[in-house]
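Milestone 3.1: sequence recovery, worked example.
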């Protein structure tokens, strides 16, 4: 469409629908930006990639129900409320200068429109799942940096940066304890390429993002949204180079997680 303010060389997102009560999402996987903003960025590709969540979309590829966003969080962050979803100053995004010059109100609104449409899609899919199942899980998969002082500097200690962090802040924790507690045990016991990963709840992150909050607000008795963070042990966060063996293990873990969570969510009425 000529002059389409949302036009991009990449699709908005990929949505797959299949069987089961678990929807896996990777809303920060994307790196694409819409054509109209491509020359407005002060931040280069490598700088954007460092704060995005690459390979999380690949990790959930075997989930029958999955949503993978292809737009960069630096165009619009789907895990923030609409009014703060477009970064407009360094204090909103790790001190980074994102734009060469301030975006116009029209440019901000065009980015917010993507946010509105993504949440409309999330609402539509979760409404259908609520019709099909007494309860369902949204497994919202992210990743985070642990070498912020530089490629050659010491990483953040594991006591502050577990391999996996589960965020449960926005959920009614007691309601979903029969899902979360055994899932944490499953993750701690999982054979991940011959080792056990460190697992924590609400340590590095608490699950305060808008994506999970939306699910809990829209489906307070049926929707269990779990914010899942992989530490970027599976890649070099400064060069972006992945470790293929670790990516394969992540994909197996996510495949097995979908099966385990599906069983747990259906083990009792919500």
């Amino acid at each position: 469409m000529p002059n389409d303010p949302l036009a991009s060389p990449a699709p908005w997102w990929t949505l797959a629908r299949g069987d089961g009560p678990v929807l896996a999402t990777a809303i920060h996987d994307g790196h694409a930006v819409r054509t109209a903003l491509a020359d407005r960025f002060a931040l280069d590709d490598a700088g954007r990639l460092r704060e995005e969540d690459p390979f999380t979309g690949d990790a959930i590829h075997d989930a029958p129900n999955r949503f993978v966003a292809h737009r960069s969080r630096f165009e619009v962050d789907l895990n923030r409320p609409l009014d703060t979803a477009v970064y407009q100053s360094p204090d909103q995004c790790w001190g980074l200068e994102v734009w060469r010059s301030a975006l116009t109100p029209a440019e901000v609104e065009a980015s917010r429109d993507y946010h509105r449409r993504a949440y409309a899609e999330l609402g539509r899919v979760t409404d259908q799942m609520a019709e099909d199942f007494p309860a369902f899980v949204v497994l919202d998969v992210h990743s985070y940096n642990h070498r912020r002082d530089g490629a050659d500097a010491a990483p953040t200690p594991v006591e502050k940066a577990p391999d996996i962090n589960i965020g449960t802040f926005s959920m009614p924790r007691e309601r979903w304890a029969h899902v979360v507690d055994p899932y944490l045990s499953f993750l701690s016991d999982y054979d991940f390429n011959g080792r056990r990963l460190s697992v924590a709840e609400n340590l590095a992150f608490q699950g305060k993002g808008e994506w999970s909050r939306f699910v809990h607000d829209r489906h307070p008795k049926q929707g269990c949204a779990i914010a899942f963070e992989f530490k970027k042990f599976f890649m070099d966060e400064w060069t972006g180079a992945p470790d293929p063996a670790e990516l394969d293990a992540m994909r197996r873990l996510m495949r097995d997680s979908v099966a385990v969570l599906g069983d747990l969510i259906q083990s009792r009425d919500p």
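The CA atoms of residues 134 and 222 lie 6 Å apart. The chain has six helices and seven strands.
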